[in-house]
Structures are given as structure tokens and as C-alpha cells.
């Protein structure tokens, strides 16, 4: 069988679009002068197959990942729109070079914070709980373990870092200082509502939505709009519900698998500042399978790549 290759490079030449920025995973383009979208406040957002962990972009990419993330985001955007939650998608009619992994979106003024909601305790939340008994200033009951379900979901914002810097958890008061109390409240309310809807849908599909990160933007009219990607394995922790067992690391359908290989098996030291080693073929394949499984379980359909 022909080896699949992940699409990790910037596609510089897209007809009708000019490249404006590269994130760790996505490429952003604006309408080229004289093109069909020229004069519209839109961006073309393209998900590559790049995978990042611990703020490093790893190599090689995960073949098909960009398409899976984009299609899963689209599915969720539709589910949430049915609940009255608006999003930034304008069109899926993108250049054929990036078909399936590109979206034309409203160009928004991004809220300079990441909106994280946690229903379960793990990751940086667990670490913070271990040393302070709280997460971003929210006190939690004693005796919680890795994977414990929280008494109720909590909103734990973090500050969006510039390229190459770590995001840091902040308290709600710090969020208010950063973006204003009114906007902070709207972001918190909307995030909690989305989590509530998504957690329920995921549960019906046999998946625990342990935690997730949203990004919002403001439209020129001042509306809060759900942007970026949403409820994907990159932005969320998905655990198989039938294997959930607090007190240990949970099996998952997200990139925890890649993180675990990096920190436990690859010999790489997270604090060394050194570039991580290349992912072996079996890790690439297993990661791809996990992303596909998340898509299949959640949407109930297969994605032919
Ligand atoms: P990571 O998600 O690993 O932190 P990143 O934040 O560097 O990576 P990507 O996800 O690779 O970024 O790229 C997407 C970029 O596009 C982000 O900076 C995101 O905030 C921005 N973005 C998403 N939607 C919109 C939008 N509608 N208008 C303007 N910018 C957007
Ligand atoms: Mg991102």
C-alpha cells in the first residue's frame, strides 16, 4: 500500500487567496485583490495535518488530520447552530487544493483569551489542583483524582500566548481585567452553554467530553461569535465512556496518545528545550485511527479520506 503522507507545508499559492499567517496547525489566507471574495471581511482557514504537543510542532504530520478536524468542527457548528449558537463559518466552497480542510470564515476580532470548560479533572487542571486545591482560583472538593468528574463543570480561562509561548491559566478576575467584565461574562455563559450541549451529545455517542477549549471573536456589530475549531480531538479531551475509571490516566481519542509517547517512551525530555524526535510510523497510524474513531463515534458516519 502506498504510504500516506501528512500535509504539513504551507500551500503558498492558492488561487484567489493571499497567505497572511501560520498557526501551529492552521494557515490563514485573505482574499487576493480582484478575487471573488475581495472586499469581504472573510478569511480562508486551512487545517494542515500538523500535530503539536507541548508547544512543539511534531513531524511527520498525521495524514488526514486536517480534514478530520475541519469536518468534525463543521458537524459541531451545525449541531450548535441548531441550539441558537452562531459561528464564523461562511462557506465550504474553497480551492480544490484544500478541499475538505479549508473553511471560509468571517474575519473577527479575536477575544484574547481561551475559554476552557472542564467537566473532569486532568492535565494542567489536575496539576494545579494538586498544589492549590483549586483550578484557576475555583476551589474544588478534597480527594479528587486523575479523571474524576467534577461536581459541576467549571470555566477555567487561559491567556492566549503568542507563537512559541505557553498559554497560562488565569483566574476569572484576571480575565475580567484583560477583556472587560461584560465580555468575560458573555464568554463564560456561552462557553458553559456549549459545554452543556456538547457533553450531552458526546455522552449519547459513548464519549466523555472531559474538557474543551473554545475561541471566540467579535463581529463588527459587537456580536460574540464562536470561531476557530470546535470540539475536536485537538481542542478537547475525549474519553471512551465505557472505560472511564478515575484514579489513573484515561484512554482517549485525542492527542494525549502522542503526548504519552513523547514523555514516556521517546526518551525526549519536555524541559530540555530540544526538538522532539520524529513520530514513528505506528504512532502516526494509531493517532490517525484515534482521530477517525472520534469522528465516527460522534457523528455516527464515516469519513472517506
Ligand atoms: P494552537 O491551536 O496549537 O494554539 P495556534 O493558536 O497557533 O495553534 P492555529 O489553530 O494553528 O493557531 O491557527 C488558527 C488561528 O486563527 C488562531 O490564531 C485563531 O485564533 C485564528 N482564528 C480562528 N478563527 C478566526 C476568525 N474567524 N477570525 C480571525 N482569526 C481567527
Ligand atoms: Mg488553534
From TrEMBL:
The chain holds residues 424 to 728 of 728 of the full protein. The lineage of its organism: Bacteria, Bacillati, Actinomycetota, Actinomycetes, Micrococcales. This is Multifunctional fusion protein. The gene is purD. Belongs to the GARS family. Belongs to the SAICAR synthetase family. It comes from the Bacteria.
